[in-house]
Amino acid sequence: MDGTMIHIREEGWKELKVGSVFNVETRGILDQETGKVEKQVHAVDNSYVAYLGGPEIFGQKMWAEADRRHWEQASATEVLGDGAHWIWNLAEEHFFDSHKLVDWYHGTEHLGVAADLIKGEETAAGKEWFEDQKEALFRGHALRVARTLEKEAQEHPTVAKDLRREAGYFHNNRQRMNYQDMRDKGWVIGSGMVESGAKQFKARMAGPGMRWSRSGAENLIPIRKAILSDRFDDLWRQAYNLPLN
Fold first, then answer.
1. Would strands 78-81 and 99-102 be described as parallel, antiparallel, or unpaired?
2. CB 182: neighbour CB atoms within 10 A?
3. Are 113 and 166 contacting, i.e. CB atoms less than 8 angstroms apart?
4. 3-class SS at 224?
5. 3-state per-residue secondary structure call for 196-210
6. What band does 162 get if pLDDT is binned at 50, 70 and 90?
7. Distance CA 48, CA 65 (A)
8. How far, in Å, CA of 121 to CA of 135, rounded?
9. Mean pLDDT score of the chain, rounded to an integer?
C-alpha cells in the first residue's frame, strides 16, 4: 500500500491511495560475475486498487481484491508499505495474521537522510556511515540503528530534532524491519510493484497542468486500475452488458 498526489479542482492536491495484490514467485537468475544461478523472489501477477479518499474505504477495497485473489487460501501472506500509520492500521484490521514489513527502499531512504544530517550531504564520511548502518538494518538491528541515532542527536544539537524523528521511525517500525530473515524465507522486501503502480496512476492523472473534477477523477480511476491490472476487457464486457437506464 502507498499513496500519490493528484490535483482536484476547488480542493487542491489530494492523496490517491494505491494498493497492489500479487503472488510471490522464486526464479533462478544468472549472476554475470560468478556464473552461478541465484534464487531471487519476485512479485508477479500484480493487480491494483486505488481510492481517492480516506483509509477506511480503501482498506475495504484492498480486502475485497485480496479476497478475489484467494488470499485466505494462501499458505502464508505478507503486507508491505512505508512507515505511514494508516497503512499499518489497515494491515492490523484486515490482514492481522500476515507478515508485515516496511519496504527496504523506505528504510534505507531514512538512513540516507540521517547520514546527511550527521556527516553532511554527499561526503565520504556520510557514505561510510550509511553503509555501516544499512548493513545493521538489513540484519534486523533496527533498534540498534534507533539507539545510534539517539546518541548522534545528543552530539549534534543543531539537528537533534530531525535525528530524533528518524530514530523514532526505526524504533516504531523495528518489528517490521526483519529484512534478512524475510528474504531468506523467500519473501519480497521491496515495494516496487505498488510504487510502480502509483507512478503510473500519477503519470495519467498528474501530468503538467492537469486539474480534475472529483467526479472526473473518480470515473477514471477504475478504468486506469483495470488497465494496470490487465482486466480492462472484463470491465468493458461488464459495462457493455449493463441494462439500459
1. parallel
2. 21
3. yes
4. helix
5. HHHHHHHHHHCCCCC
6. very high
7. 8
8. 20
9. 91
Using one digit for the tens of pLDDT, what is the confidence trace for 172-217?
999 999 999 999 998 999 888 888 888 889 999 998 989 999 999 9
Cell numbers representing residue 97 in the block: 495474521
All three cell numbers of 145 = 540503528
Closest CA to 80 of 21, 145, 141, 168: 21
Provide the grid cell at 224. Answer: 486506469
CA distance 130 to 201: 32
Phi, psi at 198, each rounded to 5°: -60, -40
Q: How many residues does the chain have?
A: 245
Q: Are 9 and 213 in contact (CB under 8 A)?
A: yes
C-alpha cell of residue 201: 496512476
- Grid cell digits, residue 61: 477495497
Largest Cα separation within the chain, whole Å, is 71
pLDDT above 70 for 244: no
DSSP, collapsed to helix, strand or coil, labels residue 212 as strand
Q: Are 133 and 115 in contact (CB under 8 A)?
A: yes
What Cα–Cα distance (Å) separates residue 124 from each residue in 105, 120, 129, 135?
21, 9, 9, 17
User: Is residue 101 classed as helix, strand or coil in its secondary structure?
Assistant: strand
β strands within the chain, DSSP E: 2-8, 12-30, 37-52, 78-81, 99-102
- Nine-digit cell string for 15: 492523496
